[in-house]
């Protein structure tokens, strides 16, 4: 078994007060508990959720001070005595779901994201914006050795979440799905999972650069919400019979599209809410929802099985998020770009700089 010299101190990005900014500083390295592993995080994707956490956007308190991050790909360097199925030196991933009780009625049915005792990486426990992060061994993503840790990092939240959302939509191969926020981190992955699952993806986002990227990733059509004069009609027109897509994946970080989706979704279609804009509400006309038999639902990350399936798509070369890598020290700049909606695809931070 490999042996690792784990330092006492490490670099981390710490949220010291709600609203930010993040502070790049040295903090102690923690020891894993009996059922935990310590992962030397090499790369971590930056999810919009990390920004929501820093800003205190949601009706759920974060721990403070907080180390954010939940798309951390790295190497297991220490483990507790109860951990039998992971060896030191294995590749593993820190996901949003850091741990769960494994005994409640949700965990029993592999709905562990719904566990009332769930631990959330970069929210209720420290996450992957540090060089050494802890997670429950049962929940870390098992990353095969041949995978590139830098490229796979965004799969650990964005990939899993959109793959699960597509499964929850009930879509079948050959059908159309509208992906709202298609140029962002989740959206870029959603377009590719959709294509790999035999679906036609209609990407919706703002601006030419995102449009170009969304089309390159395999979307059948792109609707620009910033320049479209009639978004609802444009989305419907992107389906061959003009009746609209069979499902909508809402990944945007603004409320408006959550109000529009039921207008263009096809009758019998489903609207799957995944994005979490601060303080937003859903609104849909009852009459239309009833007589057109529209389903509206939420979808929240994925379970351990979804994780391994989402990674398998990556392993087969079917999904590849466009990413840019910067040093962990530059995380605040990434948040600044994210606030302005200027990020195409995903930013990944390299924890060694
Ligand atoms: P991102 O910032 O990378 O992407 C959001 C995209 O939405 C951007 O490209 C932006 O231009 C686009 N957008 C904004 N307004 C729009 C509009 N009116 N119409 C169409 N597109 C619009 O963010 P991300 O990391 O992809 O995360 C997206 C959201 O999903 C966040 O709220 C995040 O917290 C949430 N999230 C949810 C889950 C879950 O399990 N449900 C998991 C991960 C992330
Ligand atoms: Zn995330
Ligand atoms: Zn549980």
UniProtKB/TrEMBL annotation:
* Enzyme nomenclature, EC number: 1.1.1.1
What cofactor is needed? Zn(2+)
- Identify the SMART domains for this entry: PKS_ER
Q: Where is the Enoyl reductase (ER) domain?
A: 19-349
What CDD domains does the database record attribute to this sequence?
CAD3
Could you say which enzyme class this protein belongs to?
oxidoreductase
Q: Name one GO molecular function term.
A: alcohol dehydrogenase (NAD+) activity
**What domain of life?**
Eukaryota
Sorted alphabetically, which keywords does the UniProt record give?
Metal-binding, NAD, Oxidoreductase, Zinc
Q: What would be one Pfam family of this protein?
A: ADH_zinc_N
What PROSITE patterns is this protein classified in?
ADH_ZINC
Pull one GO CC term from this UniProt entry: cytoplasm
Q: Which family is it part of?
A: Belongs to the zinc-containing alcohol dehydrogenase family.
| PANTHER family the UniProt entry points to | ALCOHOL DEHYDROGENASE 1-RELATED (PTHR42940)
| Stated name of the protein | alcohol dehydrogenase
Species source reads Staphylotrichum longicolle
